Amino acid sequence: MKALVKKIGNAFEEQKLYYLLVLLFFCVGIVLGVYAVKSMNPTDRQDLTSYYTSFINSMGKKPIDYGILLLEVVKKNILLIVPIIIFSFTFFGSPIILALDLIKGFTIGYTFTFLLTTFDGQGLGIALSSIIPQNIIYIPSIIALSIMALSISTTKFKEKFIRKTPIRNLILNKGGINILIILLCVVVIGIVVETYICPNIIKFVVTKFYL
Fold first, then answer.
1. Residue 153's closest CA among 178, 179, 172, 138?
2. How does DSSP assign 33-52, residue by residue?
3. How far apart (Å, rounded) are the C-alpha atoms in residues 109 and 30?
4. Is residue 84 within 8 Å of 144, Cβ to Cβ?
5. Does pLDDT of 73 surpass 60?
6. pTM above 0.90, yes or no
7. Are 190 and 134 in contact (CB under 8 A)?
8. CA–CA gap between residue 154 and residue 134 (Å, rounded)
9. Rounded distance, CA 78 to CA 181, Å?
10. What are the CA-CA distances from residue 99 to residues 26, 147, 157 (Å)?
11. What whole-number distance in Å separates Cα of residue 207 and Cα of residue 98?
12. Does residue 33 contact residue 106 with C-beta atoms inside 8 Å?
């Protein structure tokens, strides 16, 4: 286990540029999400406010359907993670991978800001309970996965347009499959948290402070 951790550390140490790019696009996405909420027109804001108000009012009355929720959470993560993995093996995948990181950041920034501002600042509890627990797990995993994907995709690009011979890729040569399996296992933990823990935290917050 120590050897694998050391390999991961060495691999990411040599991928600093990719780390900075992924982090930059993710943070830009968050900022754009915040700005999008600030610039919403009154009609759209009212529609979303009505939706979330109805959701909050129903939280304390309806039982949680974990089966449907699990399917939605799994589908959401598949739509993000699978494209990152697929495009990592293409020479043109890097911009798409960074765009997916941007979208993920935008989603978090938009949702958190909207929940925070919808109830005149009183939505902090809902925003924290619905966004933070699972994303503490998701975000590091997605960042690490994106770094791996960028490294592989860049190698493919160099092989196609710069060098015609295979280039040694540190991520692939240093237990890349094992790292990928670990990251996917961490994502599964995040899915469990989002499906079975977050709804109960939200329900507790809503019933105690908003109903």
1. 172
2. HHHHHHT--HHHHHHHHHHH
3. 4
4. no
5. yes
6. no
7. yes
8. 30
9. 15
10. 9, 13, 18
11. 39
12. yes
